[in-house]
């Protein structure tokens, strides 16, 4: 592995560790959430897609922009970096289906812990918004590095070994 790749991966790992820690703090302890944490309390959840999004968009107005902006735009924007960091760090996450499934599995786990602990609500809309943010980041990553090259494929246009030796398929059969 080239030194530049190692440095990029190390930087990405440090950013992911620091940024992930900050997000975990916000999800479980920040904004006064720690005062609500009580194991054994009610499990709070929303399983109806777009319900929370609909409530926030309806409540938005010139006198009330803060809560909808923080919840809707924040849940998208805060997860954009994961769309860049995961593919840089994890080779398998360079394919979108693998990336989004792993990302959403992680977010689902965190949402469940939030709902169980009482630090927040396990909300399907958070999965949707976080996934949209991560997808935006992934698109940015793809635009920056280009399409994924297939492993084991010939990228330099060389001919196959048999054709390189000057034999056609018909000559090999004879």
Lay out the secondary structure.
Elements: H1 3-28, E1 45-46, H2 51-59, H3 66-77, H4 80-89, H5 96-117, E2 122-123, H6 124-145, H7 161-164, H8 169-173
Parallel strand pairs: 1-2
Helix pairs in contact: 1-4, 2-3, 3-6, 4-6, 5-6
Largest sheet: 2 strands, parallel
Distance between the termini: 44 Å
Give me the number of helical elements: 8
Percent in helix: 55-70%
Total domains, how many? Answer: 1
In round numbers, the mean pLDDT is 85
Q: How would the global form be characterised?
A: globular
Round the Cα radius of gyration to an integer and report it. 23 Å
Poorly predicted sequence stretches spanning 5 or more consecutive residues = 155-164
- How much β-strand is present in the residues? under 5%
The number of distinct β-strands equals: 2
* Sequence of strands across the biggest β-sheet: 1-2
Report the order of strands and helices.
HEHHHHEHHH
Structural class: mainly alpha
Outline:
This protein has 174 residues and is mostly helical.
Task: Describe this entry's structure for a reader.
The longest helix is centred in the N-terminal third of the chain and has 26 residues, at 3-28. The protein has 174 residues and is mainly alpha-helical. The protein has helices spanning 3-28, 51-59, 66-77, 80-89, 96-117, 124-145, 161-164, 169-173, and strands at 45-46, 122-123. It is built from eight helices and two strands, in the order αβααααβααα. The chain has one domain (3-148). A two-stranded parallel ribbon has the order 1-2. The model is unreliable at 155-164 (pLDDT under 50). Helix 2 crosses helix 3, helix 4 (80-89) packs across helix 6 (124-145) and helix 5 runs antiparallel to helix 6 (124-145).
């Amino acid at each position: 592995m080239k030194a530049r790749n190692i440095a990029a991966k190390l930087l990405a790992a440090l950013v992911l560790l620091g940024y992930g820690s900050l997000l975990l703090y916000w999800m479980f302890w920040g904004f006064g959430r720690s005062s609500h944490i009580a194991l054994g309390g009610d499990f709070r959840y929303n399983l109806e897609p777009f319900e929370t999004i609909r409530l926030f968009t309806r409540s938005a107005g010139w006198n009330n922009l803060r809560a909808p902006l923080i919840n809707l735009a924040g849940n998208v924007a805060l997860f954009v970096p994961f769309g860049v960091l995961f593919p840089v760090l994890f080779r398998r996450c360079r394919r979108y289906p693998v990336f989004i499934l792993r990302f959403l599995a992680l977010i689902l786990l965190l949402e469940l812990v939030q709902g169980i602990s009482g630090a927040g609500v396990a909300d399907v809309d958070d999965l949707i918004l976080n996934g949209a943010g991560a997808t935006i980041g992934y698109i940015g990553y793809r635009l920056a590095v280009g399409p994924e090259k297939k492993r084991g494929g010939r990228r330099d246009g060389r001919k196959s070994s048999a054709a390189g030796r000057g034999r056609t398929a018909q000559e090999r059969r004879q």
